[in-house]
Amino acid sequence: MRVAVISDTHLPRGQRRLPDLCVEELRRADLILHAGDVATAEVLAEIEAIGPPVRAVRGNVDRDDLAHLPEALSVDIDGVTVAMLHDAGPAKGRLDRLRARFPDADAVVFGHSHIPLHEERDGFHIFNPGSPTDRRRQPRHTMGVAEVSRGTVAFRHLVVDPRP
C-alpha cells in the first residue's frame, strides 16, 4: 500500500498552492495522511477530492471549521499501526517520548516544524514530511511517501518544489 504523507500546507495563503508533483503523488497513493495545519475545511475538501481517502489531525493554525479533527489518531495500514499528531514537541528525546505516548504504534507521523525528519530505532519510526508549500528555512519543499506491506513500513522524503 502506498501512503502519501503531508503536513503544514497552510492553505490558502496568497498564490500558494500544492505543487503539481505533490498532487501527482497524492493521486497515486492508496491513502493520504495529513499531519495538521491544513488551515480550513475547504482546503481539506480539496485534498479529499484528489481521490484517495484522507486521514488528518488538527494543527495549531487550523480554523474552527476543522474542530472535528482529532488531536491524535492511529491508523492500521496493512498490519502497521501509524499514529499521527501535529506537534511532537522538542527534538531532544522525541523518539523515546513518542514511543511512550503511542506504545502500540509502529510509527508516528507528525508535522509542525516544517523540518523533514525520519528516525528509526528497533523498528519504531518517527517521520515528519516537511511541508510541500511552506518550506520556511528549509532548502526544499517536501512531502513523504510510505510503502506499507505485510506489517512493514518504509518511509522516504520527496522533493516537490514547484516547477518554474
UniProtKB/TrEMBL annotation:
Please verify whether the record's keywords include Coiled coil: no
Q: What class of enzyme is it?
A: hydrolase
What sequence ranges are listed for the domain Calcineurin-like phosphoesterase? 1-150
E.C. number(s) listed in UniProt? 3.1.4.-
Query: Do you know which InterPro entries this protein is assigned to?
Result: Calcineurin-like_PHP_lpxH, Metallo-depent_PP-like, Phosphodiesterase_MJ0936/Vps29
Q: Which is one GO molecular function term here?
A: hydrolase activity
Extract the Pfam families matched here: Metallophos_2
Q: Which UniProt keywords apply?
A: Metal-binding
Cofactors required: a divalent metal cation
Its family remark reads:
Belongs to the metallophosphoesterase superfamily. YfcE family.
What's the protein name? Phosphoesterase
Task: State the organism of origin.
Answer: uncultured Solirubrobacteraceae bacterium
